[in-house]
Amino acid sequence: MKKIEEQLESIEEVLALVIRKNASIENLIQTAAESQNKTLADTMIDIKKDLKQPSPSQNLETYVSEIKQAVASVPKTPEVQHHHHFDLQSKGFIISAALLLLSTAISIAVAISNYNESSRLQESDIKFRIARQLNPGLIAEVDSIYYEDPDRAELETQKREAHEITVREAEKLLKQRQNEAKQASELLNNLKRD
């Protein structure tokens, strides 16, 4: 445990030393850039003054060479490397992106549901139009009942549907009992013959 702590302390000391050296290097670079900029600015001011005065061609050559030297001494801009990553500061962006994705998914689900419902209603509309063509009198009567009292029409429809289901179940049960009775009578006839 002590070795690990000692190693951590030595690593912290090395890191502190590296940070200090890095800071001093940055200060040196900044002062060098400022001095070069100042030298370049002074040279440009001198060149402007000299250009205002008529000068012989020999002086121009020396000025051009000084300018070239000054331009050559200016450091090129270092390449900037962008590192994209998520941290605590980008938490808002991540939450916003997640909410946008969630709202998009919900919107798509609602659109699909609406499309399915629209298709179902379109099918019902076509069926109703066919029924209107086949039996206009019946549809007129249905329309008059519905428009008089829509709630009563819905209740009446539910009652009739429930009655129809009950009748179907009773018919099914009757057929089943008739089949059972038929099988029982056949079994009885077979037993009598034996």
Protein described:
- Keywords: Coiled coil, Membrane, Transmembrane, Transmembrane helix.
- The chain crosses the membrane at residues 92-112.
- Residues 160-194 form a coiled coil.
- With 194 residues, this protein is an all-alpha fold.
- It folds into 3 domains: 7-75; 114-148; 152-194.
- Helix content is 87%, strand content 0%.
- It contains 5 helices and no strands.
- The chain has helices spanning 2-52, 57-73, 91-134, 136-148, 150-193.
- It is elongated, with a radius of gyration of 48 Å.
- The model has no long low-confidence stretch (mean pLDDT 83).
How are the secondary structure elements laid out?
Elements: H1 2-52, H2 57-73, H3 91-134, H4 136-148, H5 150-193
Helix pairs in contact: 1-2, 3-4, 4-5
What is the share of helical residues? over 70%
Number of domains: 3
Overall morphology: elongated
Order of helices and strands: HHHHH
Low-confidence sequence ranges: none
Class by helix and strand content? mainly alpha
Average pLDDT taken over every residue: 83
Q: Tell how many strands the DSSP assignment holds.
A: 0
Can you count the helices? 5
Largest sheet at a glance?
none
Query: What fraction of the residues are assigned to beta strands by DSSP?
Result: under 5%
What's the end-to-end separation, in Å?
99 Å
Gyration radius over CA: 48 Å
Keywords: Coiled coil, Membrane, Transmembrane, Transmembrane helix
